[in-house]
Specification:
Helices cover 47% and strands 23% of the residues. The protein is an alpha+beta fold. It has three domains: 324 residues, PAS domain (Beta-Lactamase); 101 residues, 2-Layer Sandwich (Beta-Lactamase); 161 residues, Heat Shock Protein 90 (2-Layer Sandwich), CATH 3.30.565.10. The strands form five sheets. The protein has a five-stranded antiparallel β-sheet. β14 and β15 form a beta hairpin.
């Protein structure tokens, strides 16, 4: 019996170990299969994205093709008018698409440049020129070159000039690679996914990430689009040529062009969504193994956990499939000769159609557009055909299930003379963007209401503060008048007071006078901070001269050299600007009181950017710049009352007045070498909605 128990125990342990081993092997195999399945799906996605992006790139190259044919034809027929046509062609192209154009003669020397320089440069040794020299009437795309003058990487797109079938030079359009890279980066992918355009030799023409590092490089020679030029598109897996990041690549060769669009989806971004599920699966397998070793009684529970793990993996697969639609860009093409329409799968999804059941057509597309926008869309499309320009529009789409989407449509047309050959373009689902814009507008409206509420509250608070300041000023002035009055009565008893008592009495009177000045200055600052601003044209030069005369009348014995620039005019409140100049010029007068040859200047130092900057400068006592942060704070003084009188409120008042005019003020000084105050006023001031507290 004991041996049977041992046998059963051994058998259970053996079965548990075997089951755990089988479970682990099967789990690892399932994970490998799942990874392989996801990578296979990424192949299809990369190929679809490459197809969509190739349509966009091909449309851009078609635009260059059309421009080059127009330029070469005009060079042969009307060379004297070529410069004007070249300028019009460059202006018609998208901004930044083409850096400039050059014309090269049959010997390889530049004879014309739209930039006006580079004429005479020899290009006959370039590979693309050698290819153009063969005399084939087709566009040649060269490898990227570093501009000798612009120091930018440029892709040369050239077309030979054939005079009576004989090579007579070429016209080149130079496309900045960084402009192409920005267009490639418009495809919303992860940070490690790459979108690149290569020429027929495998050289990078543009790359969405590290475009500058890719210039001058090329992909490995074993890439399928290099080994078999007959292939039009395909997929492959490999490490990146530049960063060695493993990726799944989809590529599409542009028809009739020596260019390939390649999109690489990094394994990390493709398999990233699976990582949590795989980690959960491993944890489950470990738990199952422990439970299997513990006994078969918990087998059902282990199976339930396995089922839970499988459900998590299935859910992860579903999320991964949904993520394939994140790009939301479909492409379409219409062959005007055969009347055939071709849509990508994403186009069918956007318009709510089944690729297996529905046949794409222009009529079906217009049926999906609501009637209110249909006429406008048709008019825009027909106008692009008539004017042979880029078609672009944003319009709603009514799907069969009743849902409403908003899309952005782009398209270009190819003509043979006056005959339309084909039209190609893209459609992007921008519904979420529109919704976000509307939500932002609602938020802005709500914020505007809040600002209005806060403004009303601030206005009420300022009115209460003004009433409080008025009350405090009267409550403080009454005891001050009493103190000063009684001190004056005591002064009349001067002979009965000791010398020390008379000194104390003078201190009381001086303190009362200073307190009165402080109250007056404080009320003045509060009044000027809340007084309404009435803008009108005022002559600051005349105002400064008037203040200078007033200062000289107060101290006629002083000799001060005034330098006031004539014709200083500004748009400001005349009363408030008088307060500003009285304080600034008054301070300059006060702090030059101990300077033998005093000099005070008022001038305009700058008028640019929609504002004027004025300066008040003196050669007086100056101040230490270490304390400049206290300069415009109320009651903060950088000199003692024994040195110079003052309350410390004047500059604070000046700063508030200048700020209420939309300007600013700053100061620089040196002890014993004077001070300079700069303040600015805008040419078109905007009065504040509420007084400054």
């Amino acid at each position: 019996m004991k041996r049977l128990v041992h046998l059963h125990v051994a058998l259970v342990l053996l079965l548990s170990i075997s089951a755990a081993a089988v479970l682990w092997v099967q789990s690892l195999r399932s994970q490998d299969q799942l990874r392989e399945q996801v990578l296979q799906q990424s192949e299809q996605r990369s190929l679809h994205l490459a197809d969509a992006m190739s349509g966009q790139v091909d449309s851009q190259l078609s635009t260059l093709d059309l421009a080059l044919h127009q330029l070469t034809d005009h060079w042969l027929r009307h060379p004297a008018e070529f410069e004007g046509l070249a300028r019009r062609v460059l202006e018609a192209l998208p901004h930044g698409f083409v850096s400039h154009l050059v014309v090269v003669n049959a010997q390889g020397t530049v004879t014309f440049s739209s930039q006006g320089d580079g004429v005479g440069v020899y290009l006959g040794d370039r590979d693309y020129f050698q290819e153009l020299r063969q005399g084939h009437d087709r566009v040649v795309i060269g490898g990227p070159v570093l501009g000798r003058l612009t120091k930018r990487w440029l892709v040369v797109v050239g077309l030979p000039i054939l005079r009576d079938g004989r090579f007579d030079g070429s016209v080149h359009l130079l496309v900045p690679t960084d402009w192409l890279a920005q267009r490639l980066a418009g495809l919303q992918l992860s940070g490690q996914d790459v979108v690149a355009v290569l020429n027929g030799k495998g050289e990078f023409l543009a790359r969405n990430i590290d475009n500058l590092g890719a210039m001058g490089g090329r992909v490995a020679a074993d890439r399928p689009f290099l080994t078999d030029p007959a292939l039009g598109k395909g997929v492959f897996r490999s490490a990146g040529s530049l960063d060695q990041v493993p990726r799944t690549y989809g590529w599409h060769r542009l028809p009739r062009r020596e260019a390939v669009v390649v999109i690489g989806l990094a394994d990390a971004s493709v398999l990233g969504p699976l990582a949590p599920a795989l980690r959960r699966s491993q944890a489950i397998n470990g738990l199952l193994s422990l439970l299997l070793l513990a006994g078969g009684g918990v087998a059902a529970w282990l199976l339930w956990r396995i089922e839970r793990g499988r459900q998590a993996v299935d859910a992860s697969e579903a999320r991964l499939k949904e993520a394939q639609h994140l790009a939301r860009v479909g492409d379409w093409a219409h062959d005007a000769v055969s009347g055939r329409h071709v849509w990508s799968d994403e186009m069918f999804r956007i318009f709510g159609m089944d690729p297996a059941r529905d046949t794409p057509s222009y009529e079906i597309l217009m049926q999906r557009v609501p009637a209110a926008a249909r006429h406008q869309l048709a008019r825009q499309f027909n106008a692009s055909l008539k004017e042979r320009r880029l078609f672009q529009a944003e319009h709603p789409v009514q799907r069969p299930d009743g849902s409403l989407l908003y899309v952005r449509a782009l398209g270009v047309h190819e003509f043979d003379g006056n005959r339309l050959l084909r039209s190609v373009g893209t459609v992007q689902d921008i519904t979420e963007t529109r919704s976000a814009q509307r939500a932002l507008q609602r938020l802005n409206d709500e914020l505007e209401h809040r600002v209005q509420d806060r403004t009303r509250e601030l206005a009420a608070l300022n009115r209460e503060l003004e009433a409080f300041a008025y009350s405090v000023s009267h409550d403080l002035r009454t005891p001050l008048r009493s103190i000063h009055g009684f001190a004056s009565l005591l002064a009349e008893e001067d002979e009965r007071l000791s010398s020390e008592g008379r000194a104390h009495l003078r201190r009381i009177q001086d303190a009362a006078r200073r307190m009165g000045v402080l109250i007056t200055d404080l009320l003045s600052m509060a009044h000027h901070s809340r007084a309404p601003v009435h803008h009108e044209v005022i002559n600051l030069s005349d105002l400064a001269h008037a203040i200078a005369v007033e200062l000289e009348r107060g101290e006629p014995h002083r000799q001060v050299q005034w330098v006031i620039e004539d014709g200083l005019v500004a748009l400001a409140d005349p009363l408030l600007m008088r307060v500003v100049l009285q304080n600034l010029l008054g301070n300059a007068w006060k702090y030059t009181g101990q300077t033998p040859q005093a000099r005070i200047e008022f001038m305009r130092t700058e008028h640019a950017g929609g504002r004027q900057t004025f300066c008040v400068r003196d050669n007086g006592a100056g101040f230490d710049m270490a304390y400049a942060d206290q300069l415009f704070q109320p009651f903060k003084r950088l000199h003692t009352p024994q040195q110079f009188e003052g309350s410390g409120v004047g500059l604070a008042t000046v700063q508030r007045v200048i700020q209420r005019h939309g300007g600013d003020i700053r100061a620089e000084a040196s002890v014993g070498h004077g001070a300079s105050f700069w303040f600015s006023l805008p040419d078109d001031p905007v009065a504040q909605a509420a007084p400054t507290a």
